[in-house]
Design a protein that fits this description.
6-stranded mixed sheet, Creatine Amidinohydrolase, 3-stranded antiparallel sheet, about 425 residues, alpha+beta, Creatine Amidinohydrolase, Chain A, domain 1
Length: about 425
Amino acid sequence: MKYPQIDQNLFILNRKNFNKQLKNNSLAIFNASDEFPRSGDQNFIFKQNPDLFYLSGIDQEQTILLLYPDCPNPLYREVLFLRQTNDYIKVWEGYKYTKEQAKAASGIENIYWLEDFDNILHSIVHYADNIYLNTNENDRYAHTVPYRDVRFIEQMRSKYPLHHYERSAPIMRGLRAVKSDVEIDLTKKACAITRDAFLRVLKFTKPGIKEYEIEAEIIHEFIKQGGTGHAYTPIIASGYNANILHYNDNNQECKDGDVILFDFGAEYANYNADMSRSIPVNGRFTPRQKEVYNAVLHVMREATKLIVAGTVWNTYHEEVGEIMTEQLIKLGLLSSNDVKNQNKNWPAYKKYFMHGTSHHLGIDVHDFAGRYTPFAEGNILTVEPGIYIPEEGLGIRLENNILITANGNIDLMADIPVEADEIENIMNS
């Protein structure tokens, strides 16, 4: 791994918290992610199933975790199954966990090779009243591919049709939203790497460079500091491209007088940062660009104040919409008459700010959490307002990552430059 081994106590505690929410005499199974083919003889870089990682800390393909707290055989109350390495794998693929290494990483005592899974499961499954299986229930995910969890459910129902099946996802949704101190520290590290990449970009950007050249500077810093890579496909959107919310071609020239909208973040030890910034290609904002920039910054700061325990999603977004509306009127983009006659289902401000303001952040960039659950202590959320004006060839978005604590929220990106003057000063230093 590129990152130092994470304290196994994180995963021991995560399993303990999960087990507490199981029905009596229940068995739960978690599978590693699929390995996806990229071409005739290559796979895409492996990305672990976030729920399996959350409960085990094991960052390897073809892994299965079995939890059965009430199992009559103590050996099988907590079992990890691994792909067994061999001389061929050592030569062609390199490092794989040994049983001792997996035990050290996960805190799980009973480690078996994958070939033992079917026999061990069959020896205990008939004593369980309930079987908890997992699927991706992130409400941002649209299921189109029969991934490993879905295939495994079909196999289990075929083999054991009379068992009672339960969903693990509702339990994971509640657990993963609240971050432990270790998870917060890992997220802080991802944010720190992201900060250094942004500072590198500020000193590198000038008229005439290509968007992909900036992207290269970013990934250089990520890998240099032990990050896995990009937390998501980076957006390097100069000029009009900033009005394309998910622009990632990153192949255009950055022109004098334009603003570049960045949306990128580092992944570190499977935890993610998510940052947006907007900078002038030539190092100086025009008066209009700065006016729009400061309006977005105002909305971001006011929205951040609303990120507290107990806040409800819909109310929060409505309040942010009102703050944004005030700024758009000041910018001359909306009139009071536009607001008076707006469609309540699509408010007038949506013409220039059409996406949500926040999402949970964690092992997934858009982390698994309840859309209708009030914010709570330990949540990490993004705050990312934007104003997009196609007719001016201008798009501004600013985004920081906010941790809710008992004493208020903490901006995990407070040390990343965001004031327009500070950005100009660094670019011209």
